[in-house]
């Protein structure tokens, strides 16, 4: 069941803000079911009211996220602006144990798969990193991500029990164990390769940690707004670059993952990297680490929800794992070609 606002709750929270008379209220049925959202239309514009989900409502963490967003907004970064309260200028409201925030509502369209939108996503990520490279922090965000993560390994170990009784696995238990073992070995090998390249010595800074098309709105081939700052981390910037590169070049679909091609979209991969590198050039070790980090990111994204629920969204966990195995195997075989793309070789190459 999706969480909702109560009438008295809504009246009390809106009383903290100076939004003008509310003429229309529409629910926004996206994101976490535990975090209700409303689009408010007033005589001053459209706004988004959000109640933080339990577990994501730590005031220090929310305040840190808001400070980052305000710093970005001050430099013209594309994101929905936070509104402040009428009396004390705070960007969050605490009311009866819950935490609330209000944003300007941004119009935009979902990612259309175009090379133009992909390139701008890479360019905007570089801008994000440059603006936050020396951002002073009072509350340090987590230092762990998808690289060399024990939670990923624990999830891999838990998958056989999570999906072993599913109809899609019946009679294929040995194949499931083989798939999980291969993914475990692949993840370990990728993590070791990244560490050999010097990961532990690379500078850390604030990273978005969830740079993917679903966290952006687009208009006329450009990023109109970047949303969702709940996953901020203190990590080397290349973790963002590799994950963004994966998310914007991966080829999937809404149906059977067994039919998804193993190779990424070459044009989108190249455009994302080129656009990022124009503003914030990658070092040679970072370039070498990209395919290994993309393997780690892909495995981490898949196994955490599958171990918890037995599926990936509405897709069967076993079929999704087989697809992940195919894609990671492709990156193992063709990692050198990904590196070639990152070096901006002017001659087109076929991945």
Polypeptide structure, described:
With 351 residues, the protein is α+β, with helices and mostly antiparallel strands. The protein folds into two domains: 7-104, Phosphorylase Kinase, domain 1; 115-342, Alpha-Beta Complex (Aminoglycoside 3'-phosphotransferase, Chain: A, domain 2). It is 45% helix and 14% strand. It contains nine helices and eleven strands. The strands form four sheets. Strands 1-2-3-5-4 form a five-stranded antiparallel sheet, with helices on one face. Strand 10 and strand 11 form a beta hairpin. Helix 3 runs antiparallel to helix 6, helix 5 packs antiparallel against helix 8 and helix 6 runs antiparallel to helix 7. The N and C termini lie far apart (45 Å). The relative contact order is 0.13. Residues 345-351 have low confidence and may be disordered.
Strand order of the largest sheet: 1-2-3-5-4
Percent range of helical residues: 40-55%
Name the CATH architecture of the largest domain: Alpha-Beta Complex
CATH class of the largest domain: Alpha Beta
Enumerate how many helices there are, as a single number.
Answer: 9
Write the layout of secondary structure elements.
Layout: H1 7-14, E1 22-27, E2 37-42, E3 45-51, H2 59-74, E4 93-95, E5 98-104, H3 115-132, H4 150-163, H5 173-196, E6 205-207, E7 216-219, E8 222-226, E9 233-235, H6 238-249, H7 266-279, H8 284-309, E10 311-312, E11 315-316, H9 317-342
Antiparallel strand pairs: 1-2, 2-3, 3-5, 4-5, 6-9, 7-8, 10-11
Helix pairs in contact: 3-6, 3-7, 4-5, 4-8, 5-8, 5-9, 6-7, 6-8, 8-9
């Amino acid at each position: 069941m999706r969480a909702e606002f109560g009438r008295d709750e809504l009246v009390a929270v809106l009383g903290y803000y100076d939004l003008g008379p509310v003429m229309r209220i529409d629910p926004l049925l996206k994101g976490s079911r535990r975090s209700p959202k409303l689009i408010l239309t007033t005589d001053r514009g459209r706004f988004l009211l959000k109640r933080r989900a339990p577990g994501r409502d730590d005031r220090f963490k929310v305040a840190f996220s808001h400070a980052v967003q305000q710093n970005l907004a001050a430099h013209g970064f594309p994101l929905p602006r936070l509104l402040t309260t009428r009396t004390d200028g705070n960007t969050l409201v605490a009311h009866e144990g819950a935490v609330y925030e209000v944003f300007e509502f941004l119009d935009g369209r979902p990612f259309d798969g175009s090379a133009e939108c992909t390139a701008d996503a890479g360019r905007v990520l570089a801008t994000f990193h440059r603006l936050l490279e020396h951002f002073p922090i009072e509350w340090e965000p987590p230092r762990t991500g998808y690289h060399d993560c024990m939670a990923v390994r624990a999830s891999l170990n838990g998958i056989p029990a999570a999906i072993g009784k599913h109809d899609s696995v019946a009679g294929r238990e040995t194949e499931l164990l083989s798939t999980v073992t291969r993914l475990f070995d692949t993840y370990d090998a990728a993590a070791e390769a990244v560490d050999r390249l010097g990961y532990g010595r690379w500078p850390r800074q604030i990273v978005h940690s969830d740079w993917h098309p679903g966290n952006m709105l687009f208009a006329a081939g450009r990023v109109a707004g970047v949303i969702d700052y709940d996953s901020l981390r203190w990590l080397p910037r290349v973790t963002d670059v590799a994950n963004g590169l994966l998310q914007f070049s991966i080829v999937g679909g809404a149906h059977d993952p067994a039919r998804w091609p193993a190779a990424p979209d070459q044009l989108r991969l190249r455009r994302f990297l080129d656009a990022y590198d124009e503003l914030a050039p990658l070092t040679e070790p970072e370039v070498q680490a990209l395919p290994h980090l993309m393997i780690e990111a892909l495995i981490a994204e898949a196994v955490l929800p599958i171990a918890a629920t037995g599926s990936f969204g509405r897709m069967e966990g076993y079929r999704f794992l087989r697809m992940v195995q195919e894609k990671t195997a492709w990156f193992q075989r063709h990692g050198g070609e990904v590196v070639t793309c990152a070096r901006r070789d002017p001659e087109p190459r076929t991945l």
